[in-house]
Model the fold of this input.
Amino acid sequence: MLKISLAFILMSWMSVAMSDGHIMKMPSEMMFKDGPPALPAGSQISVIDGDPKMKGPFTMRLKFPAKFRVPPHWHSKDENITVIEGEFNMGMGDKFDEASTHKMNAGGYIKMPMKTRHFAFAGEQGAILQVHGMGPFDITYVNPADDPRKK
Ligand SMILES: [Cu+2]
Done:
């Protein structure tokens, strides 16, 4: 009898915990603030789910102004990007080379496996990206002089 009630309590607690975490957010409800110091000046961020600084899954949006550049860098975890608006051009390697980038528009998806060197720039209208992955999410610049945290 005790076993049954414990199981019942555990199950009802689990269903509360699971339904508690739901999120339904329209773009108009996603408030942007100044982007993280790890990105060059001018970016904006809206964390939608979780916290990229903490352990566990997260989803965030990044807004980049026109021609915004992210110098060559890598992450210790996989980076998953969905282009929501605008144009985002991404290339791979240690050196920034505009000609080698892929032009990605709304609906496009990019996965950069951990430690893969890559770089990017936004198009004429800027770009809004959705980034999801597992935190803690970090960024290491190939050339330390490119790191805005060191400026
Ligand atoms: Cu990246």
User: Anything to note?
Assistant: The beta strands are 33-34, 44-49, 56-64, 69-74, 79-92, 102-105, 109-112, 118-135, 140-141. The chain has one domain: 24-150.
